[in-house]
């Protein structure tokens, strides 16, 4: 009887994990559509607002959940604080390029960046952690490298938006992996560390005579305030999913967001998908099939 109850609880946890994971990656997938609402505001100001409002909403969430002590503990651990300073720098660059790319109709480049991100993470592990590549990983990384180089040669330049997003997020992921702090308190401390720069830039913009608070356009101001919520909610859902699902399944779900980016870029905003870019995507997708199969094959014995 107890075994059946235990199994039922495990299945319920698994189903909840699936729902939380779909919610997290679904919201991340809609990010370009959300930030189209703020594309009349310069990207640096949008990111500044995102930092300021994230401090408010993430901090409020932690306080209401009775988790404030976790934040206090971080500030008593210099090594953790140092790690979060580094991750804050990575995520600030990632957010800035992401928002700029949306405002300048480079959503396809965003999609490509997050498709190649898992493969860049492998390179980070190879270089920083001296991990050994499996045969499947090696083939996948090689195909992705050739795809990027082909786009650079045939399209007349490296896809810098994709590469900056992929490498900044991979760097962020690595630093957060080795920094012993939970996801939401970590995000709050990161935004607190960025808060002086963000608030200073908003005040400086006001002194230049810019409408940095966007008071003359209430719908856009509401969207900017909402950046704090849309930053916090997916992360909260992701944390809940990560506690309930195996890493392999989380890895599969990470393709949801860039797939949504791709569909919206091509079919909603009409970004050009020429033969060179299509070939790049097809090669990256092929690399991801190999990478995913290799991960699944190695996951099965562990499971």
Distance N terminus to C terminus? 25 Å
Runs in which pLDDT lies below 50 for 5 or more consecutive residues are none
Mean of all residue-level pLDDT scores: 89
What's the story with the biggest beta sheet? none
Question: How helix-rich are the residues, as a percent range?
Answer: over 70%
Strand content: under 5%
Structural class: mainly alpha
What brief labels describe this structure?
single chain, 303 residues, mainly alpha, 13 helices, 82% helix, 0% strand
Overview of the structural elements:
This protein is mainly α and 303 residues long. Helix content is 82%, strand content 0%. The chain is built from 13 helices and no strands. The protein has helices at residues 2-29, 31-35, 43-64, 68-74, 78-103, 107-128, 135-154, 160-178, 183-207, 218-244, 247-253, 256-267, 275-302. The longest helix has 28 residues, at 2-29. The two termini are 25 Å apart. The mean pLDDT is 89.
Summarize the structure.
With 303 residues, this protein is mostly helical. The chain has helices spanning 2-29, 31-35, 43-64, 68-74, 78-103, 107-128, 135-154, 160-178, 183-207, 218-244, 247-253, 256-267, 275-302.
Task: Give the helices and strands, then pairings.
Elements: H1 2-29, H2 31-35, H3 43-64, H4 68-74, H5 78-103, H6 107-128, H7 135-154, H8 160-178, H9 183-207, H10 218-244, H11 247-253, H12 256-267, H13 275-302
Helix pairs in contact: 1-10, 1-12, 3-5, 3-9, 3-10, 4-9, 5-8, 5-9, 6-7, 6-8, 6-12, 6-13, 7-13
